[in-house]
Write a structure and sequence with these properties.
Number of domains: 2
Organism: Steatornis caripensis
CATH topology of the largest domain: Rossmann fold
Protein name: PFKAM protein
Radius of gyration: 20 Å
Shape: elongated
Number of helices: 6
Pathway: Carbohydrate degradation; glycolysis; D-glyceraldehyde 3-phosphate and glycerone phosphate from D-glucose: step 3/4
CATH class of the largest domain: Alpha Beta
Distance between the termini: 26 Å
Strand content: 5-15%
Structural class: mainly alpha
Largest sheet: 2 strands, parallel
Cofactor: Mg(2+)
Helix content: 40-55%
Number of strands: 2
Order of helices and strands: HHHEHHEH
Catalytic activity: beta-D-fructose 6-phosphate + ATP = beta-D-fructose 1,6-bisphosphate + ADP + H(+)
């Protein structure tokens, strides 16, 4: 569940293989989960996340999210060397493990239905959110008509006018 999985470690960290992700392309929604992680906002939480990655030999990380997720990724990147040094000093990892993981490759992808991230024309999630909203409106229209009622539908999208 996002950064919380990195902090908690264990079975929360899984390798993304072709077989594990190939069926996700046509699915809308957050099929890989979504979570806000207070722990990752602290250095202690980022130390745990770094240790979990190093212990598994992971040197590539893909972060999909909005401003908070991508800011967290940038902080993690900026602190990576000092996190490793601190872990070696505390005995959390060996110097050899730190050397093997001396560089962390991070790819950040904007995923937000708000479509409000600077420098992007269309964020991952906006189109599928709009598609789902249209499906729901189509589905409840006949119910509203047959009951002679007005339905109010609340959707996310913040300042994204064609979604919200």
């Amino acid at each position: 569940q996002g950064y919380q999985g990195l902090v908690d470690g264990g079975d929360n960290i899984k390798e993304a293989t072709w077989d594990s992700v190939s069926m996700m392309l046509q699915l809308g929604g957050t099929v890989i989960g979504s979570a806000r992680c207070q722990d990752f906002r602290t250095r202690e939480g980022r130390l745990k996340a770094a240790r979990n990655l190093v212990k598994r030999g992971i040197t590539n990380l893909c972060v999909i999210g909005g401003d908070g997720s991508l800011t967290g990724a940038d902080t993690f990147r900026a602190e990576w060397s000092s996190l490793l040094a601190e872990l070696v000093k505390a005995g959390g990892i060996t110097a050899e493990e730190a050397k093997k993981s001396s560089y962390l490759n991070i790819v950040g992808m904007v995923g937000s239905i708000d479509n409000d991230f600077c420098g992007t024309d269309m964020t991952i999630g906006t189109d599928s959110a709009l598609h789902r909203i249209m499906e729901i409106v189509d589905a409840i229209t006949t119910t509203a008509q047959s009951h002679q009622r007005t339905f109010v539908l609340e959707v996310m999208g913040r300042h994204c006018g064609y979604v919200a």
